[in-house]
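Inverse folding, one chain.
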């Protein structure tokens, strides 16, 4: 595995660990909207930075506590069974992280469409493995998809490569849980 692929894999692994059930887009999708609508865009961005370990505003933990509280209220409001609450929390987190990563991609003027097409989670969620992170095949498919639109991922610096890993992880969690909470 090349150095760039290792960084993609490590970033994907970091996201998978950050999205464990105990941790818990401009508009939330499906049942995530209950939580998303109660948090400002800035608050959601702060939560995403905190989950990714890049928050430096001193509020570490308090925002996660608030998120858990809002999730708990939405679980009750939406009538989600308690045994499904951890999966619902993951779906909410996936929505928050997708919004955050898409915003960062937009800042860099990098489209996410090549990633969506390369990993194909919407069509085949069985290709997603939260513990594996970005697989070599997915990494190669992502590189080829960006090559096809004239973007050389091999020249990306670490923050951009990590962003790809975060996005792939969030996207995988989103599509894995969308059938249950997406409508």
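Residues assigned per position:
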């Amino acid at each position: 595995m090349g150095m760039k692929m290792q960084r993609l894999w490590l970033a994907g692994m970091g996201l998978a660990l950050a999205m464990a059930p105990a941790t818990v887009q401009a508009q939330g999708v499906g049942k995530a909207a209950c939580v998303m609508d109660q948090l400002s865009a800035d608050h959601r961005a702060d939560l995403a930075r905190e989950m990714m370990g890049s928050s430096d505003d001193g509020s570490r933990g308090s925002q996660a506590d608030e998120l858990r509280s809002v999730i708990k209220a939405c679980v009750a409001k939406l009538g989600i069974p308690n045994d499904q609450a951890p999966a619902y929390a993951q779906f909410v987190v996936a929505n928050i992280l997708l919004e955050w990563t898409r915003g960062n991609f937009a800042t860099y003027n990098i489209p996410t469409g090549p990633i969506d097409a390369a990993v194909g989670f919407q069509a085949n969620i069985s290709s997603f493995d939260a513990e594996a992170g970005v697989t070599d095949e997915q990494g190669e498919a992502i590189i080829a998809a960006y090559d096809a639109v004239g973007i050389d991922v091999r020249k990306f610096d670490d923050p951009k490569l990590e962003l790809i890993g975060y996005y792939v992880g969030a996207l995988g969690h989103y599509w894995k849980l969308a059938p249950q909470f997406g409508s």
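Residues 3-27 have pLDDT under 50 and may be disordered. The chain has eight helices and no strands.
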